[in-house]
Amino acid sequence: MSSLRYFALLVPLLAAPPALAAPPSPAAAQADPFKAAYEALAPADRRAVQAALGWTGDFNGAVAGNYGPRTRDALSAYAGRTGLSAPALLAPAGRAKLLAAADAARRGVGFATLPDARAGFALGVPAKLLPVRSPLANGTRYAAPDGNATLDIVGRAAGPDALADVFARLTRDAPGRTVTYKLARPDFVVVTGEAADHKFYDRYAVGAGPSGGQVLRGFAFTYPAASAEMDRVALAVAATFDPFAVATPETTPAPAPVPGPMAAPGTAPSTPPPSGQASVPPTAVLSGQALLVAPDLALTRMTRERCPEPLLGGAPATWSRQDAASGLALLTVPGHRDVPSVALSSDAASGARYALFQPGDGPLLAMAGGTTDGPERVRLPLQGADAGVLVLDAAGRFAGLTEARRGRRVVVGGVLAATAYDVTAPATVAGFLAAAAVPVARDPGPTLSPAAAASRWRPLVMALRCRITTAAAP
Q1: What is the pLDDT of residues 16-43, one digit of tens each?
Q2: What is the pTM of this model?
Q3: 284-468 CATH, one of 3.70.10.10, 2.40.10.120, 3.40.50.2300, 3.20.20.140
């Protein structure tokens, strides 16, 4: 597929909701060996399959979980290359093989969703391909060592015509530059094309800033047109673009920057950093929560891979124990000796639920009421990092910890709407703690009002932050 046609197909899918396909004829359904098995998967598994096929180079559509010609063709291409039949590919063992191949491709380019404090949002970055980091006036530039590929992440205050001005600049005619796709909506714009022997993909959006007023956020990705690997990376970068969501680091931060601007064809020159200035000390980004369950030990749903340098209460913590099956982990944090045994609720399948959470980066814990969607699922309007949030039952007893929400979150008027979270049930927590020789209270304690429960648990809940290296201000 030519590079121009690649973007003509790719960008509309990333810029707009997927269209509903017409129902297939009975004959077509019989001829499609993948459709029934694919649609029998859980929604999260369908999206995981699509995302993985993107990393294997077989899928170039929006990762939404819906089934259509691109998903069918991608499954067929991957199956043909690996020798797997349709049932075997979508069976648990086949999906595990596909996900492992995608994970290897992600690791190969060092792909990580990284928060950018200057730009104000997080974006996926291929850190191994673009290891040179340098500051921009309102963001960060990631570049290849030879400057042949760049990813600029930017965010700034915006006036009423900011988005229109950006769109006009990006679509302006220029010698040797061809726009292959452009889309302007009231809240975002997308422009792609080729300049000389490079492709470019620019996307910007406007929305409400954290202190009020409108802000413009976006990215500009430029890379060699002949790079099929970068085509896959462009799809992955665009899929992570959610500029007004709460940013949470997903994996290890990118390598330290090298001083000096790195320009590539088709991009605007950046402001060079001061002589000899490369980076500032790592900053701590709010990433989740942890619960003190024993002297100097805190329980969380975070992983070492997503947070290699954790801090609890502002103090360095170390990973003590990790269980891949449940997602639970223990962190050692010195200086917390007076910790009572955790009391677990025995009734995790019914009744009201509420949670103590950290709103944004504020110092105080808030409380949110929610509803259950099943024994280990709860719907809560959490505002901020959501990994390891303490869930309480109607009696104010421990009822689980939330797993970090994956994918896009719905924001209404700058507020995250109630979202369904998977919750690690008390029985699972009890087994994990027992294996770690952490005592659990046999008596769950008296029924507590929400206010009393908040007073009882708040001293035990700690903000979990991850150390992230950010570029120095110019």
Answers
A1: 433 334 444 444 445 788 999 999 998 8
A2: 0.49
A3: 2.40.10.120
